[in-house]
Amino acid sequence: MANKENYSVKVEIEKALLNLLTKKEFTDITVTDVVKEAKVARVSFYRHFSSIADVLESITDQTIQKCNIELLPLIDTSDERKLREFLFNYFYQISLNHEEMWALSTINKNPLTTHFAAKIQSSLEVPDSSAATMNEKYGLVAKLCLLDGISHKWVMDGLQDTPEEMIDYVMPILKNL
Q1: DSSP secondary-structure letter at 142?
Q2: Does residue 1 have a pLDDT over 50?
Q3: Range scoring the smallest mean pLDDT among 106-110, 118-122, 124-128, 138-142
Q4: 110 φ, ψ (degrees, to nearest 5)
Q5: Residue pair 111/29 in contact by the 8 Å Cβ criterion
Q6: What does DSSP assign to residue 68?
Q7: How far apart are CA 24 and CA 110, in angstroms?
Q8: What pTM value is reported for the model?
Q9: Phi-psi category of 71—alpha, beta or left, where left has phi over 0 and alpha has psi -120 to 50?
């Protein structure tokens, strides 16, 4: 039971930080802000994390792990059904959470983007890049950048197209990369 409670507290702290990041700059967020937002005791915060940066590190690590397990195999798959399913979930989640995502990217673009980009870069490195093909070196990054750019433009345009229309647009491009 204690593990479940600890996990719940950790998750609540992470959610609280993400919520605060939509309202304040990363450098202005304090441990007090996070524990108030998460409705947990300060001691609970320090049981799981040593700093606000440590919470961000945890969130980033989980995102990268999920990306490596779920996203990367799907984006490079030749299984069109699995790719369409992934893309539907991707665009659907954006349509549900675009306001928070936009707030995160506008208020805290530099610390979040820099931290996340460094993690992604290290997780995508090709062991012997001198022997790798251009596609092995850059193909996955090109696909990720494409998705990021298109989804950003979609949000900026007010989500005028449906997730299904976005999938129909993106699928042939991803398959050709």
Answers
A1: H
A2: no
A3: 106-110
A4: -65, -55
A5: no
A6: I
A7: 13
A8: 0.61
A9: alpha
Query: Rounded CA gap, 11 and 158, in Å?
Result: 30
How many Cα atoms are found within 13 Å in the side-chain-facing hemisphere of 47? 16
Residue 94: count of CB within 10 angstroms of its CB: 19
Cα diameter, the chain: 53
- How far from chain centre, in Å, is Cα 20? 16
Q: Tokens 């593990």 sit at which residue?
A: 3
Q: Using one digit for the tens of pLDDT, what is the confidence trace for 56-89? A: 888 877 777 776 666 667 676 677 888 888 888 8
Cα 137 to Cα 35: distance, rounded to the nearest angstrom: 42
- For residue 161, CA distances in Å to 39, 64, 88, 171 come to 38, 28, 13, 15
Residues 6+ apart with CB under 8 A from 56: 17, 26, 111, 112, 115
Amino acid identity of 31? V
